[in-house]
Amino acid sequence: MVNVTTAHTRRNLVVGNWKMNGSRAANAALLNDLHAAGPFNGDVAVCAPFPYLADVALALQGSRVAWGAQDCSAHESGAYTGEVSVGMLAEFACRYVLVGHSERRAMHAETDQLVADKAKIALAHGLTPIVCVGETLAEREAGQTEAVVKRQLSAVIHTLAHCISQVVVAYEPVWAIGTSKTASPEQAQAVHAVLRAQLQAATEKAQHMQILYGGSVKADNAVQLFSQPDIDGGLIGGASLKAADFAAICKAMGSTRA
Ligand code: 13P
After folding, report:
1. Which one of 57, 115, 206, 237 has the largest count of C-beta atoms within 10 Å of its C-beta?
2. What is d(CA 183, CA 55) in angstroms, rounded to the nearest whole number?
3. Residue of minimum CA distance from atom 7 in ligand 1
4. What is the mean pLDDT of residues 121-125?
5. Sign of dihedral through CA atoms 102, 67, 32, 83?
6. What is the pLDDT of residues 200-256, one digit of tens each?
7. Residues contacting 241, CB < 8 A, separation 6+
8. From CA 244, how far away is CA 217, in angstroms rounded?
9. CA 111/CA 172 separation, integer angstroms
10. How far apart are CA 55 and CA 47, in angstroms?
């Protein structure tokens, strides 16, 4: 296993991915309770469905919790019915945008290059793309985990060149998403170290980049995961929908880094 990192050089980050969940009332209650549970010892953000961004921005402005979207178009503007541009997201002060989530790769046939193009346009508008990579169960069982995540990240590295240091990377093994089958801290760390080494070959700032783990992160496994040297926080699906659960995961950051 490659371990090119010394811990304690990066801030932790926990991001909630609400996916296609919520309602205006439920979101207001969730954000209110989350605010009451903070502040947290690290960075926190929520990625909401597009129609809720105005509400979320209003609820969170002035707080320490940032917000973002779950996808964006790779185009600036034009005849792309149903798509949402990064310029629009910037109008709602989104700090982050997820790109290449496995659900988009699988259900919307997003290619590695499209994901890289989305990351590029996000950066051009001042948003931080959270680039998701991860293998399926079949790929893991075939011993292809490393090759798959490297291929996915490589497209982004080539497209962004020296700007790669400005992205957040999220390792989300597909078999761990929404399944309650979390990668063990050792399994996750092994892949994070591979990703860190790949980044290190591309940028001298790799040590400062945040690499998040996602896939069935819960309050009771977060501390162990976040304690790994190359795991800098998490991308949280189901557990981000309940304020108490999400806040407990956010608090797990505080106990793992100086
Ligand atoms: P779960 O936390 O529900 O497994 O989802 C992870 C995820 O896909 C976050 O983007």
Report:
1. 115
2. 34
3. 237
4. 98
5. negative
6. 999 999 999 999 999 999 999 999 999 999 999 999 999 999 999 999 999 999 766
7. 16, 18, 21, 22, 30
8. 14
9. 16
10. 12
Q: Read off the amino acid at residue 57.
A: A
In the chain, which residue ranges form alpha helices assigned H by DSSP?
24-37, 53-60, 86-91, 102-107, 112-124, 137-141, 145-160, 185-202, 219-226, 243-254
If you measure from the C-alpha of residue 78 to the centroid of ligand 1, how many angstroms do you get, rounded to a whole number?
A: 32
The answer to whether the CB of 71 is under 6 A from ligand 1 is no
5 pLDDT tier (thresholds 50, 70, 90) = very low
Question: Token pair 């549970």 is at which residue?
Answer: 37
Nearest CA to ligand 1 atom 2: 237
Angle at 221 between CA 238 and CA 69, to 5 degrees: 35
For residue 68, what pLDDT is reported? 98
Domains along the chain with CATH numbers: 9-255 (3.20.20.70)
- The tokens describing 170, both together, are 């999220």
Q: How many residues does the chain have?
A: 258
Residue ID of nearest Cα to ligand 1 atom 9: 237
pLDDT at 256: 66
